[in-house]
Amino acid sequence: MPKDIRVALVTGANKGIGLEIARQLAEAGATVLVGARDVDRGKTAAAELSSSGLRVRLVPLDLNDLASIKSAAESIKKEHGKLDILVNNAGIVDAEDGPPSAASLEAVRRIIDTNFLGTLAVTQAMLPLLRQAPAARIVNLSSSLGSLTINGDSSSPYYSARLIGYNASKAALNMLTVQLAAELQGTSVVVNSVSPGYVKTDLTGHTGFMTAEEGARLPVQYALLGEDAVSGQFVEPNGPTPW
Ligand SMILES: NC(=O)c1ccc[n+]([C@@H]2O[C@H](COP(=O)([O-])OP(=O)(O)OC[C@H]3O[C@@H](n4cnc5c(N)ncnc54)[C@H](OP(=O)(O)O)[C@@H]3O)[C@@H](O)[C@H]2O)c1
Hints:
The protein is of the alpha/beta class and about 240 residues long.
């Protein structure tokens, strides 16, 4: 493989926004590693993208399984020796999540385990490979619901969305963006939080204003940022989002 072809890993790429991010990155010329915890669902997604002539490969990857994260990193190291783009897309909601007074603690734990700790684990495992790329980009799929400012603003349409587990998991993810951007200052690795908008997927029960294809556009734009890329931002389709 020519050295100038970018290698991108998208977690949770078997459906929803992740599948569309994988498609758009591959259409932009990247070799895309389709991260999926369920191998069969991942194979189906990778086959769909390959059938359109796109360069993709399935990488089994479960955010809740450290061994699978380690073996994904080892296989990327062996095949490519570097990683140019990491899109931390995989995430969950939970029916037993809810307002602080009533949410199931187990549900909150499940959400934090996946959306924050799982993403942190993937990021830690991939960092040595990202450091090998000439201009690496990390995109964390956050949400406006992870904004402390928006959650506290009674005039915001998101004010009433009180899901302590989900919202806290995305606020924690934003903290990862802020701290990692500071830690990586002066290196070639840039990291940003991107809220895709309100997108019709399984996660939202197919409510929302945007298709998955539209929801993938901003994360892809940040995955492909050029040389003047700024690190440590939190953005949504309308522009910067308050933390
Ligand atoms: N949709 C929206 O309006 C919206 C808004 C703001 C932010 N987001 C964020 O955007 C991201 C994608 O959401 P989506 O709407 O596309 O949801 P989705 O259609 O439900 O897709 C979620 C993806 O994450 C994967 N995943 C879940 N847990 C995983 C784990 N432990 N290990 C590996 N993969 C796992 C799922 O795999 P399986 O198929 O195996 O379950 C699936 O591929 C999420 O981080 C979400 O929080 C979405």
